[in-house]
Amino acid sequence: MADAPQHLGPLARLGRERLSVPDGAFLLEDRSLTAKLLLRGKPADPAFLEAAERALGVAPPLEPNRSAAGATATVFWTQPDEWLVVAEPTQATGLMESFDHAGLLFTDVSDGRAAFHLSGTGVLDLLCKGTSLDLHPRSFQPGHCAQTKLAQASVLLHRPGEAAAYDLFCDRSFAEYLWLWIEDAALEFTAES
After folding, report:
1. Number of H helices and number of E strands within the chain?
2. Spatial separation of the C-alpha atoms in residues 157 and 71, rounded to whole Å
3. Would you list the DSSP string of 16-41?
């Protein structure tokens, strides 16, 4: 019997998982193996909201471009009736079982989406090279997320907390392109180090 195929992330061909620049100016990490589920429902339906909160451990955000972090997952508002749920791979089966038990509509898009985490003192400058989105801390606050373009690729950009850090989600087909664009954009931080 043949061995089961090994699950490969979208950057397997590049052989990259991490890019670090000295002095903490910039760090890029591949987090594509996280579980990613699209949850659909009617936000005006109290039964849906109650079931979703029970299954997620946190209420899905109802305000556009916001996120909510629970104990097992982070939930991103992406459309008026759709949320992206992101969790560690070990939580995926439990979440899907909870969704099934609650009668919630969802789709597993884990293999179709890449995920990166960017942090460091230069991350804001780097991101501003590729997007017209106003990322000033007054405008793009912790817990905010937005669908935008980064270097011509469609992404969901998220600011998880107060630190200079962002999560980025994109279609798997754009993962290599974005990684290489970020590597190139980060050269100025390498040159300054």
Report:
1. 5, 11
2. 21
3. -SEEEEGGGTEEEEE-TTSEEEEEE-
Digitized pLDDT (tens) for each residue of the chain, 193 residues in all: 455 445 556 665 666 666 777 777 888 899 988 999 999 999 999 999 999 999 999 999 999 999 999 999 999 999 999 999 999 999 999 999 999 999 999 999 999 999 999 999 889 999 999 999 999 999 999 999 999 999 999 999 999 999 899 999 999 999 999 999 998 988 887 654 4
Query: For the chain, which domains are there?
Result: 18-33+112-192 (3.30.1360.120), 35-110 (3.30.70.1520)
Of 31, 71, 70, 11, the residue nearest 166 (C-alpha)? 31
pTM: 0.88
Q: How far is CA 180 from CA 28, 98, 175, 177, in A?
A: 11, 37, 9, 5
β-partners of residue 150 are 153
In degrees and rounded to multiples of 5, residue 162 shows phi and psi of: -70, -30
Q: Closest Cα partner for 154 from 105, 113, 125?
A: 113
Task: Determine the 3-state secondary structure of 85 from DSSP.
Answer: strand
Q: What is the DSSP string of 147-162?
A: EEEETTEEEEEE--SS
- Provide the CB-side half-sphere exposure for 140 (13 A, CA): 23
